[in-house]
Every structure is written in C-alpha cells, then in structure tokens.
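Section 5.1 Outputs to date
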Amino acid sequence: MIITTSEQIEGKNIARTVGLVRGSTIRARHLGRDIMAGLRGMVGGEIKEYTKMMAEAREQALQRMIEDAEKQGANAVIGMRFTTSMVMQNASEVLAYGTGVVLE
C-alpha cells in the first residue's frame, strides 16, 4: 500500500478514485502516565509516556485507515492526513484519513 501526503504519486497513474478512507482510535490518559508526566512537567523536558502513547495511537489509526482502503478496493492513499480532537475530558481521538485510489 502506497501512502502519501501529496495529491499524486510521481510515475504512477490514478486509474480510479475510491473515495474517503479513514481509521481512528480513541485513547484515554492513564493514571500512571499522568503521575510521571506531572513529575516531568515540574522539571521540564519531553513527556516520553505521552509521546509513546500518541505514536501508538497514530500507528493504530493508520493501520485502520489502510484496512478501510483495502476493503474499498484501493491500493494507495493520497492526501493522507492526521487530526486529533478531544472527545471527552482526558480522552482524545486520533484520525487518519485520505483519498483511496487505484493505481495502474
């Protein structure tokens, strides 16, 4: 599966546009991570626990987007983006989306 943030893929022709493909996950903060994050917040620096949690969430959303694209018959995704939003206190959604296409 080719995934790109651009609207075209150099050297490839788009035979058909499948349409919107997407994948998401919702993650809640964890008490243990909150304690460590609070301690790091006092001394400064990267909050590695949250960095890891968000990287895992992005990867899961990306995998779900790929599954959606494959289910719809796409073999590539163009214009891929990530977005996040807070769905409730202490929980956020990570959404991966793009346009599913069939390349020749």
